[in-house]
Amino acid sequence: MLDLSIVVPSYNEEESLGELVDWIRRVMQTTSYAYEVIFVDDGSSDGTWSKIESLSADFKEVKGIRFRRNYGKSAALNVGFEAAQGRVVITMDADLQDSPDEIPELMRMILEDDYDLVSGWKKVRHDPLSKRLPSKLFNSVVRRKSKIKLHDFNCGLKAYKSDVVKTVEVYGEMHRYIPLLAKEAGFHKIGEKVVTHYERKFGKSKFGIERTIKGFLDLLSVSFMSKFGKRPMHLFGALGSLMFFLGFIAAFWLGAKKLWYVYHDWSAPLVTSSPYFYLALACMIIGTQLFLAGFIAELVTRNSPDRNKYLISKKIGIDE
Fold this sequence. Notes:
The chain folds into two domains: 2-228, Alpha-Beta Complex (Spore Coat Polysaccharide Biosynthesis Protein SpsA, Chain A), CATH 3.90.550; 232-302. 49% of the residues lie in helices and 13% in strands. The protein is built from ten helices and seven strands.
């Protein structure tokens, strides 16, 4: 097994790849680590893949994977993680804003300090205010929600133990939440390192304000899946039962009130003339639908091939 795998998602970054590889090679020459650099071309429309082929021909450490079309950073990372052979896996962006000079210290924190994951913190950012402010808000919300004390979940420069990247599955836009996914998978020793952030040298950013909106939606997805992914009835069943119970109580009260008036021979309004009747009916219908949704989701989960898939870190005296 190699000591280090460097996974670099790349999308229309032809101009920066050569300089990035030279920078990585200079840094790695000061160490004794055996390493590989895995570029994942995320469906680039420029000469990114041709550049990766050229670099791979010149340097045996450089490897490449090419998507037929653009799938996004999460897909690129997931494929890169599957291909990585290193004991330690480091991810960085291809735009030269992440510094390879950070690699030796990140390696030390994983190998010597025994962190499962170390996330970079771009304490001083060379990005416009329109990117920095949404990022601060996003990181603050995720930090409070996840209870993971990181300042920069979005930083592309991260280091992982091999077990982490082989365990977590990154999909959709979940690359922002790899620390949260790792924590949910049982990797709790998560650290942080202040890293140098450089101004973009070539091209332009591939991310806009829409990624902030997607980020908050993905946070809801991660939170839901981590808590109720294998037990949806606990959520939908509980909500459905509560809604049905509230509606039933309201309907029972209206019916009892009507009977009370009739028993005393008083003039009683029609039950259907009360707005509470329709609210009660709506609650009972919604409650029934939520309960059935939970029941159906539970049936689907029970028939899933992963229903009894648990994460085991070590075994003693058990044949593999």
